[in-house]
């Protein structure tokens, strides 16, 4: 097998949570371009339909499911439907996430709970559900979308629960990597820096002093720039990697 062949995901089934827009949509497309059949979960029907159309145009089987990662019964139902229609899940990308910008004294308990429930508990629920069948089969790869926010404090908006949730995701990644390595399941994470999406308008002037100027590369990233690393972690190209957190931040965390 040639080196480029190790990146291929032909005959694999991938699930990307929060895959209808932004980073999730870009990662789903990358996996499809590498040959995987892709299922996405989303909570916006119109965006999910558009993402699904794009995925099927790439010549792979695809499906979109309306599933809330904070609802255990919806997670179980979604996983069962994917396995029934596409086959066992070989690749899981935990991307679904939310954040609120507010100071710690202004943050409501409801906002704190919502962020932790999606960003951490949601990752746990989906990973445990999919991980059970991966462990039983003795194979599988999981890529958690963490953040450089696990290592720095975001500016200009204060986001304490978001930072806490992403730090926990990094540690959860390492814990599961150690536990599941003997069962043939690898677990790694991405730690993106400032990426331009609808939810993160880092191209706006007020973000430049905080998000662009401190980075050695002097720019923000684009969602599609995370795709190659995701394919790498999902494929046999990273066969001797587990428990790693791959930082993709234009050098932001170097200082």
UniProtKB/TrEMBL annotation:
Keyword Zinc-finger attached: no
Keywords, ordered alphabetically: Oxidoreductase
Gene3D superfamilies registered for this protein in UniProt: NAD(P)-binding Rossmann-like Domain (3.40.50.720)
EC number: 1.1.1.47
The keyword Oxidoreductase is assigned to this record: yes
Any single Pfam family the record assigns to this protein: adh_short_C2
Start and end residues of each Ketoreductase domain: 12-193
A single MF term (Gene Ontology): glucose 1-dehydrogenase [NAD(P)+] activity
UniProt signal peptide: none
NCBIfam families with a match to the protein in the record: PRK07231.1 (NF005559)
Family according to the record: Belongs to the short-chain dehydrogenases/reductases (SDR) family.
Protein name as annotated: Glucose 1-dehydrogenase
